[in-house]
């Protein structure tokens, strides 16, 4: 099947921006120029430009024309996550010397909401690992890891201590490094907190906001392999955003 003309225009404009032919803030071809260049109707041109505007790649101004967006095109944006603890501030990827993990529970469950995240039938069994991350004896993160039971065949789930590092278990058993696989993460401040048990697990007496982080990790085939819901003490976590020109 031939590629639609509007799609060809979209991809060509993206390429011209990527290779620097059109730079952020510069005016691109007019509608008439695009119609002649691709021998298409005005409707096709408008559709292509609309898609690029909606994606934030182009900006259109009445009576002036169409321009490459000045936003973050051709810029490098770096997100750094930090853990702030009594003895310092550390990048989230850094292993803190006095940090350790304790498994609270391992259960086999059926949950339609979690199954949808893992893209499996709602009746399928799911293994739920509930763990607490501590710095010294102070709990700062409640972490709920969910995996399809079918991905944990012949795994002894009774040895809690073995699953203090779930990623190492998966690497050892299946040669999958889930820390390096593709993932999608969503971070928000939750208040009021829906599940009050998180305060008990974090040993917090007063209801305070918590960071709520959702993450889905994908295996190379694109299938969700693990879904994580974490709740963090609000004063132990921060995000720093750095933008660099390329």
TrEMBL record:
The keyword DNA-binding applies. SUPFAM superfamilies: Chorismate lyase-like (SSF64288), Winged helix' DNA-binding domain (SSF46785). GO terms for molecular function: DNA binding; DNA-binding transcription factor activity. Residues 3-71 form the HTH gntR-type domain. The keyword Isomerase does not apply. It comes from the Bacteria. CDD domains: WHTH_GntR (cd07377). One of its GO terms (biological process) is negative regulation of DNA-templated transcription. It holds the Pfam family GntR. Keywords: DNA-binding, Transcription, Transcription regulation. PANTHER family: MANNOSYL-D-GLYCERATE TRANSPORT/METABOLISM SYSTEM REPRESSOR MNGR-RELATED, MANNOSYL-D-GLYCERATE TRANSPORT_METABOLISM SYSTEM REPRESSOR MNGR-RELATED. This is GntR family transcriptional regulator. It comes from Listeria cossartiae subsp. cayugensis.
């Amino acid at each position: 099947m031939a590629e639609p003309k509007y799609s060809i225009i979209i991809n060509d404009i993206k390429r011209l921006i990527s290779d620097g032919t059109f730079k952020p803030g510069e005016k691109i071809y007019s509608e008439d120029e695009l119609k002649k260049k691709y021998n298409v109707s005005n409707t096709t041109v408008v559709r292509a430009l609309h898609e690029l505007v909606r994606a934030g790649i182009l900006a259109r101004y009445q009576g002036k024309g169409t321009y490459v967006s000045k936003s973050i095109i051709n810029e490098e944006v770096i997100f750094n996550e930090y853990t702030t603890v009594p003895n310092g501030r550390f990048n989230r990827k850094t292993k803190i010397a006095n940090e350790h993990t304790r498994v609270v529970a391992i259960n086999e469950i059926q949950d339609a909401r979690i199954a949808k995240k893992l893209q499996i039938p709602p009746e399928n069994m799911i293994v739920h690992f509930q763990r607490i991350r501590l710095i010294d004896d102070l709990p700062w993160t409640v972490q709920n890891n969910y995996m399809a039971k079918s991905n944990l065949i012949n795994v002894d789930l009774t040895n809690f201590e073995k699953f203090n590092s779930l990623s190492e278990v998966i690497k050892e058993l299946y040669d999958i490094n889930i820390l390096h696989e593709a993932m999608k993460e969503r971070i928000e401040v939750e208040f009021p907190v829906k599940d009050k048990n998180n305060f008990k697990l974090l040993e917090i007496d007063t209801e305070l906001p918590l960071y709520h982080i959702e993450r889905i990790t994908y295996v190379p085939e694109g299938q969700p392999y693990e879904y994580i819901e974490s709740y963090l003490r609000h004063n132990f976590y921060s995000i720093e955003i750095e933008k660099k020109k390329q």
